[in-house]
Amino acid sequence: MAQTGIVGEGVLGKSVEGTRRKLDPIELLPSVKFIRYESDEIFSHCPQTGQPDFYTAKIEVTDPAYGVESKSLKLFLQSFEDKEACQFCEEFADTIATEVHHATKAWQTRVELVQKPRGGITISAVSTHRREKG
Question: Among 122, 71, 125, which Cα is nearest to 95's?
């Protein structure tokens, strides 16, 4: 059976201090054609009011060249807790999609980000990136 592993050094098994806005790609077996990552532990701040925003995310990659190591994904998503990094839900969804798409080199990356209700309103934003054929 083929061996897979983290591309580069990675953070798995290492102590990490502070925020980390980097995703560690992992090698995949050729048979892996779809991956879904889900998290309900995403927290950020409203860029206007500074109020807390809590999110759930579904991140899907289709026909990826690489996966994303889960610890690096968790640290990446936690890096948005920093008030300097806060974004509106719509931009936040696109930021996640852009970075995951770049790391996985997938044919398609789709991120659905749901901001939990605040003021009685739930916001859902979807960002999709596709690799050009060629």
Answer: 125
**For residues 40 and 37, what is the distance between their CA atoms, to the nearest angstrom?**
11
Which residues are CB-contacts of 96 (< 8 A; sequence separation ≥ 6)?
Answer: 57, 59, 77, 111, 113, 127
pLDDT tens-place string over residues 52-105: 899 999 999 999 999 999 999 999 999 888 777 778 899 999 999 999 999 999
40 belongs to the catalytic site: no
Single out the catalytic residue among 53, 86, 89, 94.
Answer: 53
User: Which residue matches tokens 């696109």?
Assistant: 94
Contacts of 59 (CB under 8 A, 6+ apart): 36, 37, 38, 73, 96, 97, 100, 109, 110, 111
**Rounded Cα gap, residues 77 and 1, in angstroms:** 32
User: CATH fold of 30-130, please?
Assistant: GTP Cyclohydrolase I, domain 2 (3.30.1130)
Q: What is the pLDDT of residue 7?
A: 65
The C-alpha atoms of residue 24 and residue 18 are separated, in whole angstroms, by 17
Catalytic residue list contains 53: yes
